[in-house]
Specification:
This protein is α+β, with helices and mostly antiparallel strands. The protein is built from 2 helices and 4 strands. Helix 1 runs antiparallel to helix 2. The protein is globular. It starts with 14 loop residues before the first strand and ends with a strand.
Length: 91
């Protein structure tokens, strides 16, 4: 299998990127995501964050829209989300 390089993407950088992460509906989940991702994507302002409760109120979907600068940055974001036990799924 061929290994992907930074040029193996259809995105053109920089670009606005909507990242969505799902977790259990617990206090502070959105704040936790901001703290987790700030070292990778920089300061996250309130207007960049949108939250939505699942139909049964069990899960919280958090969308953070930010300016992605590279595929490597996006890879780092998804690696951090995958490694975090509070994140159920990310898109």
């Amino acid at each position: 299998m061929a290994q992907k390089t930074s040029s193996d993407t259809l995105l053109e950088f920089p670009c606005e990127y909507p990242l969505k992460a799902f977790g259990n509906n617990t206090a502070g989940f959105a704040t936790h995501l901001r703290e987790l991702l700030t070292p990778i994507i920089g300061t996250i302002d309130n207007d960049q964050v949108d939250t939505r409760m699942s139909r049964g109120n069990r899960y919280l979907a958090v969308t953070i829209t930010f300016e992605a600068t590279s595929k490597d940055q996006l890879d780092a974001v998804y690696e951090a989300l995958t490694a975090d036990p509070r994140v159920v799924m990310s898109l």
